[in-house]
Every structure is written in structure tokens, then in C-alpha cells.
Amino acid sequence: MVPHYNYRPPAGAVIDASDPRLRWDGSSWILGRRVFAVPAGHRLVGTSNGSHRGWYYDWSKHAWMEPSAPKPPPPAPRPAAGGARPQPLPQPRPQPRPAPVPVPVPVPQPKPQAPARPVKEEFVVMEKKPHTVLEDLMKHPIAPVLGGLMVLAGYVTDEPVPPQIPEGLPEPVAKQWQMVYAQNMQRFDRRMSLYRDLGLVLLGYSGTRSIVDVIGGLESRRALPEKRAA
Questions:
Q1: Cα–Cα distance measured from residue 137 to residue 146, given in angstroms and rounded to the nearest whole number
Q2: Is 97 or 188 the better-scoring residue by pLDDT?
Q3: What pairs with residue 5 in β-bridges?
Q4: Across residues 90-101, what is the average pLDDT?
Q5: CB < 8 Å & 24+ apart, contacts of 25-31
Q6: Which pLDDT belongs to residue 207?
Q7: 57: nearest Cα among 99, 10, 4
Q8: b (16+ CB within 10 A) / e for 188-208
Q9: Please, is 57 exposed, middle or buried when counting C-beta atoms within 10 Å of its C-beta (0-12, 13-18, 19+)?
């Protein structure tokens, strides 16, 4: 057998014969949709119809073992020159066997049992894929409560109050006030939309959207009104 240390077989080339639910994705063992640490002693072997047929994982060596190539059979003896056939070797004559001597059978003595030692399980450390902050936050127990508050804040927060333009105010100044109010309303709409989107993500209604998609959509919506105002 040829050992392979620090070797990772291709995805699907090996299986866990002790637990058929586990599958190998090329870097770690997966149970369902999560990374699983395989306990020491599980029988990890190559698939019967794949490129790693006959492979197995040696827990004592921490290496994948590849079967060695079979040795070729020895060549057959060639006939002697001139067509002469080899003479048969003389067969040894069988010798008479001596009569068997009866051997007394020893009576087995009970051996004292050693105290049982706790079995230490050895776990194979697999690399875990990094999680984003949003994924960790969605798994927190307070995520639904926080999401509900953010969705509620997106609907009940008061919008900016329009400016009170007094009479006699110069027209350029009045237009500037109106432009500042329009910009504040745009920022308010984007902020409330962000609160609602993040709240729905935390509540689980939009679990497939990421924070990058939410912020990207808000940036595109912000650029369009600014171009119109210009």
C-alpha cells in the first residue's frame, strides 16, 4: 500500500461506509448542508466504480492508502537449444510419519480483567467556510425581533417637514430650499427602504437576498434622482 499524506481526494471519489448520509465535496465531509467532523474509526473508502477503488483512510497513519500495483508473474522457462526437452526432476519419496504423541490440553485460567479506559474520540479537523456577518445575525435568536422593529420603523417614521417659504424671499433662495427638501426626501426614502429590506431579511421573508444586493439596489436608485435633479 502506498500512503498519501495531506491528500484530499476529488469530490465524490470516496464515501463513509460507516455513515452513508455523509458525502465528500473535495474539501470536507457534508451532512445535509453543514460541515461534519467525522469521528475516528469511521471506515472511509473509495467508491467501487471510481478512480479511487480500493483506497481507504488509515487512522493510525493519518493518510489515504493506495493499493500497490500487482507484481507481474515470472516468465515461463524457455526450451533448450536444439529442441531438447528439459528432463523431469526426480520426485522425493514420501517419508513415513511418526505416530502422534498425545499432548495434555491445559485448562484455561480466567485472566483478570483490566479496568476499562475511557475511549478518546479523535476528530478530523476540516476547514470551515467563513460566514458573513448577515448570516451570523440571521441565526441569532433576537433576529426576528430586530427585523420586526426595523420593518415597523420603515413605515412609522415621520418624513421631513417641507420648508415654510416666507413671502418676499428671493427666488434663488426659495429654489435652493426646495432642492434641499427634495434631497432630504430622497435620503429619507432610501433609508426607510433599507430598514424594510434588512428587516425582511432578518424575519426570513427575503432570506435569499444578501446585504450586497440590498445596498446595490439602493445605490442605483439614488443615482437616478440625483441625475434628474441636476
A1: 10
A2: 188
A3: 63
A4: 74
A5: 27/126, 27/127, 28/126, 28/127, 28/128, 29/124, 29/126
A6: 47
A7: 4
A8: eebebebbbbbbbbbbeebee
A9: buried
Model confidence, pTM: 0.32
Cα(30)–Cα(34) distance, integer angstroms: 6
CA distance 15 to 49: 12
Residue 89 grid cell: 526432476
What is the phi/psi pair of residue 98, to 5°?
A: -70, 155
What pLDDT sits at residue 120?
Answer: 61
Residue 25 region, left (φ>0) first, then alpha (ψ -120 to 50), else beta? alpha
- 109-123 residues labelled b (16+ CB within 10 A) or e (exposed): eeeeeeeeeeeeeee
- Helix axis angle, 211-229 to 171-203, nearest 10°: 170
Contacts of 157 (CB under 8 A, 6+ apart): 188, 192, 195
